[in-house]
Amino acid sequence: MNSLRTRVSTRVSALDERRRHRALARAILRLLPEPESWLDIGTGDGHFPETAKELFPYTSFDGLDPTPRVVRARAAERIEEAYAGHLTDPHITSALHARYDVVSLLRDRSPAPDPEAELQAALAVLRPGGLLLMEGRPDDLRAQLVPQDCEIVTEHRGFQDRLPPPQRIIARKNHQP
Question: Which residues pair with 37 in a beta bridge?
Fold first, then answer.
């Protein structure tokens, strides 16, 4: 009986995760219908890009993760390019500088040792005018993004019964003068 509960619970949580991923991707779709390139930071097995591809079939999705799971995501064709490591690694940041139209930084998947440095690196790999998709506490994110010459484009506060709601922020990196 416990085994059945575990399988049902796993299926339900996977379905909830897929719905959440679709909602996150749909939020970008409203702002940028056809991005050329997207970097998913902390991609793990690449389930977010796999779901987002349903809405963005012509977008090139790349993934970055400090674990070998990113290589498996590439082998499963959930992402096109796999980068193993941390975004704050200067070699990775310089190789990916201003390459992406969208960067998703969903910290719940793999918290960064230095979130501020990771945000700086995420902005470095984002093209001017590109979109940064994040989840977290809006006041904290706003305080970090506004001084970086980013415009908060949209903010969404989810609703749940007992837990603090997930809060999504999409920011646009302003064009360089």
Answer: 60
Pull the structure tokens for residue 65. 């993760």
DSSP 31-71: H-SS-SEEEEET-TTTHHHHHHTTT-TTSEEEEEESSTHHH
Report pTM: 0.84
Torsion of CA 10, 85, 148, 104, to 10 degrees: -30
CB 112 within 8 A of CB 85: no
Question: What SS3 string covers 124-167?
Answer: HHEEEEEEEEEECCHHHHHHHHHHHCEEEEEEEECCCCCCCCCE
Phi-psi region of 19 (alpha: psi -120 to 50; beta: other; left: phi over 0): alpha
Q: State pLDDT tens for residues 98-151.
A: 999 999 998 655 556 787 889 899 999 999 999 999 887 667 777 888 888 888
Backbone angles phi and psi of 136, in degrees to 5: 160, -160
Token pair of 162, please? 């007992």
Select from 42, 50, 90 the least CA-distant residue to 70: 42
Q: Is 75 exposed, middle or buried (0-12, 13-18, 19+ CB in 10 A)?
A: exposed
